[in-house]
Amino acid sequence: MHENTSESPSPTEPAAPVRFDTKVVVVLREDLKPWQELNVTAFLMSGIATSEAGLVGEDYRDADGQNYLPMLRQPVLVMTGGAEVLAKAREKALGRGMSVAIYTEELFSTGHDAANRAAVAAVPADELNLVGIALRGPKNAVDRVVKGARMHE
Q1: pLDDT for 9-57, tens place per residue?
Q2: Cβ-proximal residues to 128 (8 Å cutoff; 6+ apart), any chain
Q3: How far is CA 65 from the centre of its chain?
Q4: Which of 7, 34, 84, 128 is deepest in the core (most CB within 10 A)?
Q5: pTM of the full predicted structure?
Q6: Is residue 131's pLDDT more than 50?
């Protein structure tokens, strides 16, 4: 009998750190209430997670065999900035061909997806009242796009 020489981490051993060539960043407007920060981040990350095949990993499973939903495969940075930082980051990201998820202040008062889309569609791009954006792209490009934002505290 041959011994298995392939090394795979056991469920209790951490795998070697994975290096990603992309970065996921959420930038929140700095004046949001805590519940708004959480709400905006959750909605924006749903856009990122569904934006490309392979971004979400496999199901999680505990030692008892219970399955849990899969999550995004890479870390997410949450940053804050003023309204002008969000507007510039949106413009730069789109100019670089990055996909961007947006959340506008009007979405706090809508009740469903169709109303959300209608609220965004009613406003010209340069007048969007952004309270959050999320993007994923090459690390260096994302760093340039979110310049001026700072890590969320």
Answers
A1: 455 566 667 778 899 999 999 999 999 999 999 999 999 999 989 899 9
A2: 87, 90, 102, 104, 120
A3: 29
A4: 128
A5: 0.85
A6: yes
Among 134, 104, 140, 139, residue whose Cα is nearest residue 122: 104
Does pLDDT of 97 surpass 80?
A: yes
> Cα separations (Å) of 36 from 40, 48, 78, 88, 144?
6, 18, 14, 21, 26
129, pLDDT greater than 70:
yes
Rounded to the nearest integer, the mean pLDDT of the chain is 90
Structural domain spans, the chain:
22-151
Encoded tokens for 21 = 């060539």
- Options 3.40.1490.10, 2.60.40.1640, 3.10.350.10, 1.10.3720.10; CATH for 22-151 is 3.40.1490.10
CA within 13 Å, CB half, 60: 8
Q: Which amino acid is present at 64? A: D
In which element (H, E) is residue 55 found? none
Residue type, 132: G
User: What is the rounded CA–CA span in Å between residue 149 and residue 146?
Assistant: 6
